[in-house]
Amino acid sequence: MSVKSKIWYLEQINLLKDFQEGELKMFADLTIMRSTGKNEYIYFPNDPSKIVFFLKRGRVKIGKYTDDGKEIIKAILHPGEIFGEMAIAGQESRTDFAQALDDDVMICATNVEDIKEVMNKNPKLSMAVTRSIGERLMNVERKMESLIFKDARTRIIDLLKQMAEKRGKKIGDEILLKHDLTHQDIANLTATSRQTVTVTLNELKDQDLIYMERKKILIRDIDKLK
């Protein structure tokens, strides 16, 4: 891939939006762009935490497996997001797995020591990465609190609200949410069962709180979604 193409991709990364062309070129020299096929793993639990990744195209799933083999999805990432960044905070080995969800997912990989050096020279990047790590830790804390204090229905509704606020498109008083999640994915994200997800979504539909089509959910009034 040419340097010019690399820079174009790097410009789309959320944390690098404020970089000047010269800074992006320097960063491009430290990164490797590669494609990953659907369902391929980018890293596994216990792998050394030596690389930080930026997602350029497609989606990536971050999760782990319980002792009995059940999958728990911690996050589904979209283009522009960083992952594996806990290596910057001193993590020596991975605690989660990262898996491509789409065909031809493109990621940008850089050595953790290299990105630390760039962070030392660029306070904006340092602050952005620190903020990203903090947000990731807060999300984990919120998820733990949700599992302890909220029932399955509330967890599913909270996920819909979070997705709508982050990726939904407002249409009048309604919010259109486009997604590629199966009911099993939603179950894995909320630590519930596929049957519970199906029942909950059908109840919300019957109450005219949402309208569902394939890969689309229309939330009628997010304030009434409870």
At the fourth CATH level, what is the homologous superfamily of the largest domain?
Answer: Jelly Rolls
The name of the CATH architecture of the largest domain is Sandwich
Oligomer: single chain
User: What is the mean predicted local confidence, pLDDT?
Assistant: 87
Assign a percent range to the helix content: 40-55%
**Structural class given helices, strands, pairing?**
alpha+beta
> Which value, in Å, is the CA radius of gyration?
19 Å
Question: Main β-sheet, in a few words?
Answer: 4 strands, antiparallel
Outline of the structure:
This protein is α+β, with helices and mostly antiparallel strands. It is built from seven helices and twelve strands. Strands 1-8-3-6 form a four-stranded antiparallel β-sheet. Strands 2-7-4-5 form a four-stranded antiparallel β-sheet. Strands 9-10-12-11 form a four-stranded antiparallel β-sheet.
Q: What distinguishing features does this structure have?
A:
226 residues, alpha+beta, Arc Repressor Mutant, subunit A, 2 domains, four-stranded antiparallel β-sheet, 40% helix
